[in-house]
Amino acid sequence: MHHFVESIGARQSAETILNDAIQTCLLIPPLWDLRNFVAVNPFLGFASQPFSQAARVLTDRLDAQSLPVLADYQARWRMGEFGPEDLASAAARAGFDPTRLEAILEGRERMPLRPSLTPLTLAERIDQARGTDWRDQTTRAAARWCAVYASDGGRFVGVARQRLYPSWREFAQTDRSLEIGGLRGFRRWVGTLPETAEAALVELSQRHGLDGPERLARFHRLLGGLFGWASFLRRYAWERDPNDPGDVLDLLAILLALDVAVAECCGINTISSDSDAHHLTPRMVEDEAIRVLLQDAWEDGVARRLLGRLVAPPSRTEAKPNRPRVQAVFCIDVRSEPLRRHLEAVASDIETRGFAGFFGVALAWRSEGKTDARCPVLLKPGVTVEHRVATSELSNRPRAGAVAAQLQNAPASAFSFVEILGPAYGLKLTRDALALGDAGSSCCGEHTGGFQLDHAELSRQAQLDLAVGILQNMGFADRFARLILLCGHESHSANNPHAAGLDCGACGGHGGAINARVAAALLNDPAIRTGLVQRGWSLPSDTHFLPGVHDTTTDEVRLLDLERLPQSHRDDLERLAADLKEAGRRVRQERAADLGLANRPLSLLDRRFKRRAADWSEVRPEWGLARNCAFIAARRERTRGVNLEGRAFLHEYDAARDPEQSVLTLILTAPMVVASWINLQYFASTIDQATFGCGDKALHNRVGGLGVVLGNGGDLRGGLAVQSVHDAQGRWFHEPLRLQVVVEAPREKIERVLAAHPSVYDLVRGGWVRLFALDPNSDQLALYVPERGWEAWRCQDPAQARPAFSPDSTSR
């Protein structure tokens, strides 16, 4: 068998083959488990390449869509979401004739097409020639072993814990499933394979004459067949070192081995001319270069309307109002924008600010034997916070719920846990569906109970440094209210494997309650206050930091650690609670139509929102971060009173207070990058559910706590569900727009940060985000155009601007 196609060229060097294999593995993005679900840019491996180039590669190798098709742009054009002026500006940047773009949109000229050559795997070529389904059988076989391996199941089937490929090779020699399916002699054949993944990749590539670009494309296509499992395996190595392929290299060796096995075990020593014709399958696809121009034009139209609402800056010499009654710091999450807007409308003496929802406290939360990182995955926890469980808390804990959760997450019982628990669990489901339970109940002491910082990790001096960083990065200076609310956020839903995906992206897919509590406790500490004075921070003695958490499903804010509030602030607390209640009511009224609750009596809306959170049959408890399209780092004076439709991440930033650009560097290298990950995950899940989304929630089955599959097996599904980006009629709810990043700072300061951080600069010059500079002393905007520099930008007159998003504009 080893003589298979040896006549095809000379053997390639082992070093070149392994380098190609590693580079292909690094194109795969990481994927987190359900408990720690993190929004990930699915194009992360292509971040150093231009957006249009990556789109072309993904089309050719994976049959994946990375851009809307012409029909979608034509629908937006007919709806007036962009016009001739937008076409002209987008075309001018690329040196293209705008009249041609307009003719294409109006159907007077054909869309330019290009040939796409897809390098099929051996199994696909044989399937096309013989009508078999070996590609599906082999990928399912690999998926089954990934599930066993990732859940540590190998130890239950007699395979010692080792790397993925050797453990598969050992087990595959006893697994009869593929032989039963018709792959004769497969177990004996596996025994002839090299013992390491690296050796297998080299030998099998040489045996089949894979060389040059074809090898890279074939490797990528093989991994694309198990994109979800490859991404899951990528996470662990990525966290250690983004340039380490880890177990993905082993998975590639398994997939290549299974692909070769189909040919060799079926006795196909040469590929027939019949299947050879399908070696490269040519097809005509819409040119990505033209679609990128149309994408630019569409985004120009949306940006002109949305960014045109930013208000002119107040004079630097203009005195600010008297001391605010409350300053409320919310997460930059787009769901905070409506609540901030309504809260300031309810009470003009309240100021709000935006900051990443971990509040600058990168912590590891240890509770009930589990430890979770509560910070963006781009950061590492700097301190461990231990949950201190009181005796009363232990005695009152609902054990049935804990048992149900364990059963639901266990691979062996995930499909039958309702039957195991019997009628008692059925009654619970009925109770939840009727909204008779408490949708906002918390667990693990994140809302209540004591906590203890690990002082061995965080000295008093380090705590003081952390406190200074929190105040500085939040944009505080010399004005402090009596009450400063630090408001994290979380979501609540029932029977939802991806519930963590609705929590805080800045907290690693968890709620931000514990981060807010720790930050508030730190800033209220008398010893820290004394140290802050020595550092030049003059906080009034009556300033108290109060933690809270915003439930984004119901838009209720729960205020925490009230037992620590001084008696002197009780009146302040009551007024704030009333203001938050009214603001939440207004937000629910604003959101009602999008959730199918339009024209409901206001008296019933509260209950309907709570019912959605507790209803185990609800596939869309909330819309999450759908429609996100902008990131604005600016003074709140720029956006206060402006309706940004829940579409913008809002981060407080005052360039005049940041002479060394340290805060700007932090914003562009952390929260902006996290926002771009979220944005591109929504973008890709909307464009191509088959590759980048996780499909219909009604068809999901859990693989323990690892992830979900559709139906009874196959690839692990990453990304967002259909119900998170499409409405009930299957039309787009989320608009696939790249992140429009607006920074209120001089251009030269922005350029210095980009020059010092190439990975961030890659996002900008590659077209993954669009960067605008907002002049701090005027209302002038400039767009950074890759390879051309800054271009003056004219927004639409706010008085003429209609909403940037129209509910009637969904196209699918």
Automatic annotation (TrEMBL):
Superkingdom of this protein's organism: Bacteria
Membrane topology, from the record: Peripheral membrane protein
InterPro entries, sorted: DabA (IPR018752)
Cofactor: Zn(2+)
Chain positions recorded as Zn(2+) binding sites: C331, D333, H489, C504
Main subcellular location: membrane
HAMAP family linked: DabA
Protein name: Probable inorganic carbon transporter subunit DabA
Function: Part of an energy-coupled inorganic carbon pump.
Gene label: dabA
Source organism of the structure: Isosphaera pallida (strain ATCC 43644 / DSM 9630 / IS1B)
UniProt subunit comment: Forms a complex with DabB.
Keyword terms, alphabetized: Cell inner membrane, Cell membrane, Membrane, Metal-binding, Transport, Zinc
MF terms (GO), sorted A to Z: zinc ion binding
Ribonucleoprotein recorded as keyword: no
CC annotations in GO: plasma membrane
Cellular location(s): Cell inner membrane
Sequence similarity: Belongs to the inorganic carbon transporter (TC 9.A.2) DabA family.
